[in-house]
Design goal:
Elements (H helix, E strand, L loop, with lengths): L1 H26 L2 H7 L1 H19 L17 H4 L6 H8 L3 H19 L1 H12 L3 H12 L6 H11 L6 H7 L12 H28 L4 H9 L4 H26 L6 H7 L5 H4 L2 H11 L5 H30 L5
Length: 329
């Protein structure tokens, strides 16, 4: 009882002091705070300008999704048509094919590649020889800095029916030349696993950073108790990176209708369009690359994709907050 009474008394003494501190901070105007910390606000200026110009200002053009836009009349001069273009997309024969291709490709990529950076980070974190660890990191990080165009060029060269290494290897087993890039069934596999090779090492950096917060004392105590390296990875390291993994998973689910536009477009050809045509490439073709650009229709499809992505993001965040106790907000 005495201890409880003393704690209550100390809390009562601290409360007025905290209130005075908050009052003093609120009394300092925004202008004075900006003058005192102008370096911090200067650092924020360029990112905020970039965000305003390239992320928020273009949202003004979303209006044309509800209009029959033409260049001569301009955005405000074009007639309103409501949700005409949305109905047109949902009722078109392309709708389910585009949705299926996009969702299938993204889910395949998510399931196949999401665990790989986690596994790589856990393995690199257990390496005790610095020279080997740094060499492994360099080898796995390097592909990230190769441009998408170069990666697709490498894939095309390696899978060439006449001179490609892949077909030379198949020839050793008596298989004839195979047009791998022209096979619609192989498109998804090539896209996903070439992307895994390119991004796995760099994505592991986030998890390696999270692993630095694990106290060494936990590993020392586990070693004393006789825990193997695999047990320590499972019971100590993995729980430390679960919150980060959950947040990245939420972001990936939110972009389920958006895949790597440049890479998909570069890998497309007339033979694999059955599985290679996704929403992003379709929007580009009808909005910019067609003989008669359909700006309003393309914008409506893009807006539809963004709204679905936002809904999925909110749902994923809600489930993660409820079941994993970790979320974006």
């Amino acid at each position: 009882m005495t201890t409880s009474t003393e704690a209550e008394a100390q809390s009562a003494v601290r409360a007025p002091a905290q209130e005075r501190t908050r009052t003093a901070r609120s009394a300092v105007g925004l202008g004075l705070r900006m003058r005192r910390n102008w370096q911090l606000y200067a650092m924020l200026a360029l990112p905020l300008i970039w965000l305003a110009i390239f992320a928020y200002w273009p949202m003004y053009g979303v209006i044309i999704a509800f209009k029959d836009y033409n260049v001569v009349s301009g955005i405000w001069g074009s007639p309103w048509v409501g949700t005409k273009h949305f109905h047109r997309f949902v009722e078109s024969y392309q709708f389910w094919r585009l949705i299926k291709n996009t969702v299938y490709l993204h889910v395949y990529e998510l399931v196949a590649t999401f665990p790989l950076p986690i596994i790589l980070a856990l393995c690199l974190n257990t390496i005790r020889k610095k020279w080997f660890s740094r060499s492994a990191q360099l080898i796995t990080y390097a592909p990230h800095f190769i441009s998408t165009v170069v990666v697709v060029g490498l894939v095309v060269v390696l899978t060439n029916p006449n001179t490609g290494v892949a077909n030379k290897f198949l020839g050793l087993f008596g298989f004839g030349p195979v047009d791998i890039m022209g096979d619609s069934g192989m498109f998804r596999h090539i896209y996903v696993w070439s992307g895994a090779w390119q991004t796995m090492g760099f994505a592991a950096i986030i998890y390696l950073a999270a692993l630095t917060s694990v106290p060494p004392e936990l590993h020392e105590a586990a070693i004393v108790d006789g825990a193997s390296r695999l047990r320590r990875m499972w019971h100590i390291d993995l729980p430390a990176i679960v919150p980060v993994a959950v947040i990245l998973l939420i972001l990936n689910i939110g972009s389920i209708l958006s895949v790597g536009f440049e890479k998909v477009l570069l890998m497309q050809n007339n033979l694999n369009l059955d599985t290679a045509e996704v929403i992003d490439t379709y929007v580009y073709k009808i909005g910019l690359a067609s003989a008669v650009p359909q700006f309003s229709y393309a914008t409506a499809i893009g807006l539809f994709r963004s709204v679905i992505g936002l809904v999925l993001l909110v749902l994923a965040n809600t489930f993660a907050r409820r079941f994993a106790r970790s979320s974006l907000w």
